[in-house]
Amino acid sequence: MFPFSVTHPRQAMQSGPHTxxxxxxxxxxxxxxxxxxxxxxxYCEPHWHPAPELITVLSGRFSMVVGQQSIDLACGEMxxxxxxxxxxxxxxxxxxxxxxVQFSPGLFxxxxxxxxxxxxxxxxxxxxxxxxxxxxxxxxxxxxxDNRAPFQRIAAIYMLLDALVxxxxxxxxxxxxLREEAMIKEGxxxxxxxxxxxxxxxxxARHAGMSYSWFSRLFKKVSRHNFKEYLTLVxxxxxxxxxxxxxxxxTDISHSCGFQEHKYLIAAFNKYCGLTPTEYRKRYIxxxxxxxxxxxxxxxxxxxxxxxxxxxxxxxNNQSQSVP
Length: 324
Description:
With 324 residues, the protein is of the alpha+beta class. The chain has ten helices and 13 strands.
């Protein structure tokens, strides 16, 4: 689970001069049938994807929304997220880091579907089944780091999934909940397709097939932001991409991202990033070809190396969770 600024969402449609994206996150899987990454993360906006995933907090604390449920995760705690579930994430402490394992849909078929589970761990309440999940996660990570034989790695993937199935409770989503989530996805897609145009909550609610008040309530529950704040964050993320990847004048970027005036883009950057668009662009240029050790001002994600030091941290956290 990456912030949109470092993922490759599917192309949704053309809107104005720029290609825009939906909230559906496209994950590229190679022969490994797995996507594993560690990162320091500040914020990840609501999104979904066909890959179920397992999140482990390496340090700090995160608050998450999965579907319409709010979840707090502390250091050492783990959470399984089902395929296609809308989820978002926000760091509650500076320097919060996580490890994510995303399971390729290619691992499953009609006779062996992806597990649909409700499962998470709690600090200081470790059970044997939770310990099995943590141990098999570490076994898998060790095989990946050491680049062991492919059949060993694929076996470890299925062993981890087996441990999750044994530890978790099967979940059956209510039809009403699924319908509401589908409508929220429609709304998020619509925002991502029309962020560069004048947009109101009423416009999005009508497109999603909901009443104004119903959509407003559900949307804030899922995104943890009111509509105006969320729209500003989407526009800000698009602007950051253009500031990094193009030489387009900042005034043009502000207009193409839906900010009516240049000053509104500057205000958004100051509020959410702590610097101006000009400073952000200059800092990004100066950081190119430099291996960073800490999350830069104005960024939401810094990838961490998958190595034995990280594996040792994972083992230490797991041991701490097991102490009564």
